[in-house]
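A reminder from the course coordinator: this example appears on the midterm review sheet, so study it carefully.

Given structure:
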């Protein structure tokens, strides 16, 4: 066991310095580091530990007593206290139980026809044109529209959501500026929704903001700050990551002609393909916790009050858990990847994201006979994220 001092950090990082802010290929980095130690320290972003193996990542995700939520990202400090991602039981349990009722399978099933319609509206013109940037015109526009429907916004409400995402994306290369923007990025949208539901309340069993406004945490009426935090979290989590996953699915289809042909021949394999794309390219590479006490992970002791990144991108490619971990396997059994998290903080919106990906993949394959890159795709360039700026495709009907 290593000691809880600077030497421990050096020992845990003995293979070489882990610098995610400058690494050219993070997945190669994860492979290299995982072979050396299940947990490593990085001095980037003022310092954090990273848990790399599937077994340790899944265990830490469940252990909220030793690995407490609070700061969502290592790249920049949180400007506020986002609910429920920054909370822990029993407070987290209260909010999560409330949110779960809006994402039950029957709710997703009722939303499915609307998702199909939104995908068709955005995808059909691109297919008819035969060529275009599927990321900018479809992957970046569908999730904000679905979120708009889920929240009961106006018919054009999604346009402002998309513009807000673009505003944040324009700062993707400047982590400090990007982090600072998060403090107020969704304030206008959330405050507008709060004002509308305060004046025109809807059925709280169906409308999430109306439900939020009726909450009584600890038996007291919910505060304005708590309402704003909950609303902000829903807006922030509901679009950007799904856009990234949709882009990854389009890129996978365009660059794997054999799998593309197999999926056309057997559409029932598409859900398996989606799970593999999610496993190999998680939009967020890690979730973040803070140690509440000295914690020993695979022989390395991480001191109390340290930031710990649960690296799902590394865990998803751990050969101890996934055979042939770097390749899409349409026949993979029990693909229990960690892209949507694990344990108490598993992503509440995962069922809707999967439905969006299924509708998108199904219509893209059904409407074409060939999908290829028209030019090299461009990634977003953010550290510790899988993202896209442009995916130009050629589509043959």
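Designed residues:
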């Amino acid at each position: 066991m290593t000691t809880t001092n600077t030497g421990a950090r050096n020992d845990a990082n003995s293979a070489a310095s882990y610098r995610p802010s400058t690494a050219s290929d993070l997945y190669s980095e994860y492979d290299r580091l995982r072979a050396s130690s299940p947990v490593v320290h990085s001095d980037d972003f003022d310092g954090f530990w990273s848990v790399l193996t599937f077994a340790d990542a899944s265990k830490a995700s469940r252990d909220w007593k030793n690995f407490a939520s609070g700061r969502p990202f290592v790249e920049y400090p949180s400007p506020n206290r986002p609910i429920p991602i920054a909370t822990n039981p029993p407070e987290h349990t209260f909010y999560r139980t409330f949110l779960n009722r809006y994402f039950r399978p029957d709710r997703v099933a009722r939303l499915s026809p609307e998702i199909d319609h939104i995908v068709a509206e955005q995808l059909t013109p691109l297919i008819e044109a035969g060529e275009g940037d599927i990321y900018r015109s479809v992957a970046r526009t569908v999730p904000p529209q679905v979120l708009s429907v889920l929240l009961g916004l106006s018919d054009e409400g999604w346009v402002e959501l998309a513009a807000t995402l673009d505003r944040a994306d324009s700062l993707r290369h400047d982590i400090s500026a990007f982090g600072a923007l998060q403090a107020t990025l969704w304030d206008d949208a959330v405050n507008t929704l709060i004002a509308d539901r305060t004046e025109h309340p809807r059925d709280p069993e169906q409308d999430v903001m109306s439900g939020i406004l009726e909450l009584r945490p600890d038996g007291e009426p919910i505060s304005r700050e708590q309402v704003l935090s909950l609303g902000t979290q829903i807006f922030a989590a509901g679009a950007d990551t799904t856009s990234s996953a949709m882009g990854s699915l389009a890129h996978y289809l365009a660059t794997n002609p054999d799998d593309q042909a197999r999926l056309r021949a057997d559409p029932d394999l598409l859900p398996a393909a989606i799970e593999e794309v999610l496993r190999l390219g998680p939009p967020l590479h890690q979730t973040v916790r803070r140690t509440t006490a000295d914690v020993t992970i695979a022989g390395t002791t991480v001191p109390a009050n340290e930031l710990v990144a649960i690296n799902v991108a590394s865990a998803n490619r751990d050969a101890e858990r996934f055979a042939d971990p770097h390749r899409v396997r349409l026949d993979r059994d029990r693909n229990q990847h960690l892209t949507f998290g694990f344990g108490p903080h598993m992503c509440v919106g995962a069922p809707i994201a999967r439905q969006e990906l299924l509708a998108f993949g199904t219509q893209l394959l059904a409407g074409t006979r060939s999908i290829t890159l028209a030019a090299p795709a461009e990634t977003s360039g953010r550290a510790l994220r899988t993202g896209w700026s442009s995916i130009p495709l050629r589509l043959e009907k």
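Residues 263 and 269 are 6 Å apart (CA to CA). The radius of gyration is 21 Å.
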